[in-house]
Amino acid sequence: MSSRIVVFTLLILHFFQCCSGSGLTNSGDTTLLLKVKKKFTRSPKSWKGSDPCRTWVGITCNNSRVVEISLVNLNVQGTLSASISFLSELEILDLTANPKLTGRLPPNIGELKKLTILNLMGCDFSGQIPESIGDLEQLTRLTLNLNKFRGTIPASIGRLSKLDWLDIADNQIEGEIPVSSGTSSYGLDMLLQAQHFHFGNNKLSGEIPEKLFSSKMTLIHVLFDGNKFTGKIPKSLSDVITLEVLDVSNNSLKASVVPSWISSLPSLSTLRMEGINLEGPIPVSFFTPPLLETVNLKGNLIDATLDFGTDYSNQLELVDLQYNDITDYKPPTHKRIQVILADNPVCLEEEGNKLSDYCKVIKHNASLPVTKTCPRCGEDKEPIRTSCLCVYPITGVLTFRSPSFSGYFNNTNFNMLQQRLEEFFKNPNYPVDSVAIKNITESIVDHHLLIYLLLSPLDKESFNQTEMNSVISGFSKQMFVPPERYGPYFFKADQYILFSGIMKTCHTIKSNLCIIIRAVLGAVIFLLLLTIVGIYALRLIKRASDQNNPFAKLDTSQSSIDVPQLMGAKAFTFEVLRKCADNFSETNDIGEGGYGQVYRGMLPSGQLIAIKRAKRGSLQGGLEFKTEIELLSRVHHKNVVRLLGFCFDRGEQMIVYEYIQNGCLRDSLSGKNGIRLDWTRRLKIALGSGKGLAYLHEHADPPIIHRDIKSNNILLDENLTAKVADFGLSKLVGDPGKTHVTTQVKGTLGYLDPEYYMTNQLTEKSDVYGFGVVMLELLTGKIPIGKGKHVVKEMKMKMDKSRNLYDLQEFLDTKIITNSENLKGFENYVDLALRCVEVEGVNRPSMGEVVKEIENIMQIAGINPNVDSIASSRMYEE
């Protein structure tokens, strides 16, 4: 009997020993987790009781000790307690995708000596990254992207000798990259095991250190895009023979030649150097790395001939050189490569349907395969792709930072990714029924590949918290391995409806009270519908017609021109404008633009008007057209072309302006209209157009950014008074606190602000850049880009301030150089123009400051800046 008791006792002890990993929790760890929970204003509902190892979601234990905390996408809110740093056995801390988890990281986080993974992606942490993070000696993965970290990169990170993955992208981190030196024993150059440097979209500055890279490193991904780095690309990168993806796009790097050492990178597949002031020709050897697939060198100063030679990579698919100065092109001979040379001089002479393929901008369109059509589910549910059962899926965006192929949306690449995802989630650890790709897009600014996923639960309606945690951790811990050419990724999950705190109570509590509430609400809603259905029926016909006409409330059907106004703008009928322009005859055709033809017309009162008539194939949407009219009707200034009215009738869109007799400044500079512009007249034109632009920026309410300042959009009246025109691309700055408008890049090659091009952030300083180019155009008389050369670059290279007229005589228009002694204020004018075209907008003056300086220059030249008109009898060539 006693032996049986002993055996039974041993069995009981063995049971507790075997089950201690999921049973009783170490009392010290329990106390610490309770302190962590106390700092959360919203924690998982299962975090109750005193045994976290047994019942708390996201807690994994080994021998009663907490070894993992994984609270992925559980809408945890609050701050992270410093007590977490005393969980001495903790190996994994994954708080990915909790956007209301805020505050600073505990300064003593370095106490977690056994931590191997620290994933904080997509939270809202701020402040400096703690210096003690360098004490995490076992750390292999550090993921801090998509937070609000500030300050500098701690040099102590260089002590993390086992670190494989360093991701600090999409924060507000500034300063220089730390490297080891005489004053600092540690730096990122010591991370010899690291394969990933993801530093994009921060405020990092200074030069990229030459010492950062060496032949001892094993880096495969170096992503430094979207920062403020200066200097040159370090040549030491050529020593990193493992490098597969390099992205240094959109930085303020110093102008330098296209690096020839690229050819020495045997593993390179993706190269992105967009908007970093590269100049000169591309070496023939540039495309020779054997695995090279994608090259993006948009928005640089690359010139001369593009020649692939004969030894280019057999893997090469895409070479994007849009917005450069390339004058000639020798296509590759034995492989078809997608080459984009749009907005280069080599393409400027081609028009319309005659454009060569390499002169066209390729627009990617997602072509998703047809799947089974399922009825809508409602209540935030989605149908499973294979069975049409309605479930609550996990949704989110899978972002690939640097894919190595051009055909983002072709079926081959799509099917490859779809298959890899399905294979991954067949693992029994992931309770996923199916994976659906709902949408594929390419981000405009950084060219990331964005794939919207739906992950459906297996054999049930929804995921529980543990299941969702494990599924998303497959991405956050980089356990999912995408097809090779997709490159580095991160997954940003949407808040799961069942755990977000906004789920309807009736869905989670199946009670009689909820049934009663539903019945009452249903009855009330039904009565309300009965009340309004009559009103809706009466208005249905009118509403249908109004959807196609944003001016339906205006009386545009009258034949008189005295129709209702929109902030001073009159609504004309098509018939009235047709008569004014003599049926839009060729004799009244006075020009053409991207919007359409411009016709001269005359109102019954005898007033001359200009009618801009949209091409049928390029009509804007009705609401967009209405927005443009409302914008233009706000503007009232003598140096801005006055809007008289519009037409939105019979499917036509037309804008009516005051007629400006002498056409555009470009025609005068070219001699097309016979007008002679001397130095005095050019200064007055600069002053007038500057005043118009300053009015838009500083006095219009709200301010207006023109976005397409060029000589074609500055008109001259009978007295050569300059008037800013053509607001088709203009943007309102509606929020007084905003310093920019994030928008797709539009404008005209040669006048386009490089900072706007690189960041998609449009500012008033973008107009200043275009105006600076116009100022230089007034000096030269030539278009800003000619024969592959840009006037800004050429004048900067040529000017010598120690010599007369800065030694720029060869650039000047002969009409003003005939008497150079009268060019008083010339040097001040050039200095001002070059300040306007500084690469960084912060270094450019405001338009108000530009106007004041032009007035000072005119006074130096002995010209009264307060007299606008110039006698017409002296306008024309004799």
Question: How is this structure best summarized?
Answer:
The chain is α/β, with parallel strands linked by helices.
Verbal overview:
With 878 residues, this protein is an alpha/beta fold. Among the domains are: 255-360, Alpha-Beta Horseshoe (Leucine-rich repeat, LRR (right-handed beta-alpha superhelix)); 382-503, Alpha-Beta Plaits; 565-658, Phosphorylase Kinase, domain 1, CATH 3.30.200; 665-874, Transferase(Phosphotransferase), domain 1. The strands form eleven sheets. The chain has a 13-stranded mixed sheet with strand order 2-3-5-7-9-11-13-15-17-19-21-23-25. A seven-stranded mixed sheet has the order 32-33-37-38-36-35-34. Mean pLDDT is 82; it is low at 1-22, 502-511, 544-548, 553-565 and 870-878.
As a percent range, the share of strand residues is 15-25%
Strand order of the largest sheet: 2-3-5-7-9-11-13-15-17-19-21-23-25
Instruction: Evaluate the radius of gyration.
Output: 33 Å
| Count of discrete alpha- or pi-helical segments spanning 4 or more residues | 18
The biggest beta sheet reads:
13 strands, mixed
Which keywords apply here?
single chain, 878 residues, alpha/beta, Leucine-rich repeat, LRR (right-handed beta-alpha superhelix), Alpha-Beta Plaits, Phosphorylase Kinase, domain 1, 13-stranded mixed β-sheet, 18 helices, 21% strand, globular
